Amino acid sequence: MSVATFKVWLQNHPNPKYRRLFHWLKRLRAQEIPTPRLFNLLMHHSYQLVQTTLTTLLRLLIHTPAFKGRLSQCGKRLYLYGGVPFVAGPLTISIGDDCRISGQTTFTGRSQSSSPRLTIGRNVDIGWQNTLAIGNQIIIEDNVRLAGGVFLFGYSGHSLDATARAQGAPDLDQDVGDIHIKQDAWLGTNVTVCPNVTIGRGTIVGTGSVVIHDLPDFVVAVGNPARVVRHLKES
Fold first, then answer.
1. Of 23, 45, 63, 158, which one is the catalytic site residue?
2. The pTM is what?
3. What are the E-state strand segments in 45-166?
4. Which one, of 146, 104, 149, 141, lies nearest residue 125 by Cα?
5. How many CB atoms lie within 10 A of CB 190?
6. pLDDT, tens digit (0-9, with 9 covering 90-100), for 54-99
7. How far apart are the C-alpha atoms of 183 and 217, rounded to whole Å?
């Protein structure tokens, strides 16, 4: 009998003694040790110090070297946070200086392509749970910001034909495309960018948008499909 089953058995037993035992055990589980505020503050700051120290040591001694070992080129001052990004497929990755990348990021290269390549410029932020699927090439220029949940959709990995897809057939070459995100662009949370799309310099793409065609420089685009709703002043 599992713990959950035993709890239900006690809670619903016809004998009231068993039901009282269940409520007594429930109250016992909810007990706490009264501690003064000064002690609580001390424990909080001690916990934060230990956690920060361990996280920093993991990042410096394990996570960053392990990720750098998978790169073809890496600039200075790479900052990983939250672990090591997942990399799959025959992918060549080049990263510039001063980049910050979440460890919850996924980079995949299309196996059927000859040499898929991801090129990341300087001072680029790649946020939490981003997925970059590189069919042939994805270029992310300097100062680009990718918020959480961004999907750069260079390839699907599956055939558009239902019968072929059920048999495990990959996508065709004509369904694969490059993605180019120009300097200073900012993609909001949960943005999807489809193949053969260029996003212009300084352009902002709003949360949840799906970009299926090129966007010009210095605009704000939102929606599904994304459309230009505002023009920005060049800086």
1. 158
2. 0.84
3. 73-74, 79-81, 86-88, 92-95, 100-102, 106-109, 117-120, 125-126, 131-134, 137-140, 145-146, 151-153
4. 146
5. 15
6. 999 999 999 999 999 999 999 999 999 999 999 999 999 999 999 9
7. 10
Q: What is the pLDDT of residues 116-130, one digit of tens each?
A: 999 999 999 999 999
Q: How far apart are CA 44 and CA 63, in angstroms?
A: 26
Among candidates 152, 156, 198, which has minimal Cα distance to 175?
156
| Residue 44 designated active-site | no
Q: Which of 116, 157, 170 is nearest to 138 (CA)?
A: 116
Is 39 in contact with 47 (CB distance < 8 Å)? no
Q: Give the side-chain half-sphere CA count within 13 A for 103.
A: 15
List C-alpha distances in Å: 146 to 23, 94, 157, 187, 224. 50, 17, 23, 5, 18
